[in-house]
Amino acid sequence: MPLIQGCNQLTTLALFLIRRAARTAALGLALLISAGVASAGIYEDLLLAIENDDTRTVTSILQRGMDVNTVDKSGNSLLMLAVQKGNVELVQFLIDHRARVRVRNQYGDTPLMFAALKGHLEIVKLLVAAGAEINHTGWTPLAYAAFDGHKEVVEYLLHKGADVDALVPNQATALMLAAKNGHLETVKSLLKAHADTDIRTSGGGTALKWANEGGHREIVELLREAGARE
Predict the structure, then answer these.
(1) Where do the structural domains in the chain lie, given as residue ranges?
(2) Which of 64, 97, 210, 211 has CB atoms 3.0–4.6 Å from 219's, for a disulfide?
């Protein structure tokens, strides 16, 4: 009888422990779900604050523990988003709080490439000072700056050691991109840096050919004076 009673007590205790463990697990899951929803909500608030150039709200959220290197579904970091908005103050804050400057989104873009494309010279300088990579395979910051004709950014990157003849995936150069889009002053800066005028793309395009096709007569004349050939 005592043995049976003891077994019953053990069984009751075991059931109690199992039920308590189940309740604890359920509570833990609920807390995780709640935390996930809360984190998602905070992240949405963070993105909205960046979009609205609300630096105070962004810094407040990050100081509450949000990871400074959080990325969106396309792999864009908070630093990339701040760079695209041209928010110098926020970019500096993120860099100071150890945001990674050598990071790429799913398309291969870096914070420095975004800054170069947008022509944000001050941000370009901040990123380079923080260790952003200037020369790498694929599209480069110099190519992005030349594509949109940001002469000052092009000159700064060249001064910092950018490869003037670096090839993008279709074998074009910064000079070819600037010539194609009619950016005369940028073409002048690249020629001054001794850009090669005779490099051809995989499709046979040259800086002179692209300038001709675009009807950019001043650039065509300038390239011919520099010895360019189609």
Answers:
(1) 1-133, 135-230
(2) 211
Segment 18-55, tens digit of pLDDT: 444 444 444 333 333 333 333 557 778 888 888 888 88
Domains 1-133 and 135-230 equal at CATH topology level: yes
Q: Which residues contact 14 (CB under 8 A, 6 or more apart)?
A: none
Distance CA 91, CA 103 (A): 14
How far, in Å, CA of 46 to CA of 141, rounded? 27
Q: Which CATH architecture has domain 1-133?
A: Alpha Horseshoe (1.25)
Task: Provide the token pair at 201.
Answer: 């793309």
Would you say 69 and 94 are in contact if contact means Cβ atoms under 8 Å apart?
A: no
Residue with token string 């970091």 = 77
Tokens representing 60?
A: 């407040």
Buried b (16+ CB within 10 A) or exposed e, 131-143: ebebebeebbbbb
Regions of the chain where pLDDT drops below 70: 1-40
pLDDT at residue 9, as a whole number = 44
Please give the model's pTM, rounded to 2 decimal places.
0.80
Q: What is the pLDDT of residue 43?
A: 76
Q: Write a three-state SS string for 90-149.
A: HHHHHHHCCCCCCCCCCCCCCHHHHHHHHCCHHHHHHHHHCCCCCCCCCCCHHHHHHHCC
pLDDT at residue 64 in the model: 83
Written out in words, the top-level CATH class of the domain with range 135-230 is mainly alpha
**Helix axis angle, 121-129 to 151-159, nearest 10°:** 20
